[in-house]
Amino acid sequence: MNLLMVDLVDRFYALIWPLLRISAFMAFSSIFSVRAVNLRVRILISFCLTLFVAMQIDIPKLDPATVDGLKEIFNQLFIGFSMAMVMQLATAALVIAGQALSGSMGLTMANLIDPTLGNVPVLSQFFTLLGTLVFLAIGGHVIVFGIVLESFQQFPIGQSLMNQAFMGKMINWSAMMFLASLLIALPVLITLLFVNVGLGFVTRAAPSLNIFSVGFPAMVLSGFVILWLALPNVIGRINWLWVQTFNQLRSLLLT
User: Fold this and answer.
1) pTM above the 0.70 mark?
2) pLDDT tens for residues 37-70?
3) Quick one: which of 48, 83, 11 has its CA closest to 251?
């Protein structure tokens, strides 16, 4: 019985290290941490991936109660959190694009409460849902799980990810949040700019016309029409954003 208990403790120590990295990724990544994904489902996926990883790699025996064990706990959580942060920045680009369009269309007051991102405009919610559908349509969940499993080969347990090259890649990737949001919202923003210029000419030509009663409905209506027409282009750019996200995740493993 004592030998059996020792064997169980060794197996627990062997599973706890990949479980920490995978659980941190599932808890903080933008797609898998939403409330639509049940907590039990996330726990089940984490355990399944952990069992699969434990059969594929050699896990060193470390006591989590020691100094080296506590250091390794922080290291595994940091690696999972860093990979999740890459996806969070991609989702933030969709939110910023929706905020830019909402401000141009006059929908800044029509906000929804998002438990993950806070008080965001309606169009940000729309772009987030659209980005999630594109992510699932291109098999992003399979690609991301493959990259997470590959990380145990590139960064085995006991090796630290925190270095200057990694920090530089994360800072460079944060710029993608603004670049991608600009590319996604640019077609609609430019068209709305021309609509604003047209309304300005109308105001100069007919000063007695109440521009607020005419311009606001025109901006909202034209904004939705233009967004509907530009939707295929927007979906293509969201697809490009996710491809860049996958490339960045792989790039982190080559640090």
Assistant:
1) yes
2) 677 777 788 888 888 887 777 777 777 777 777 8
3) 83
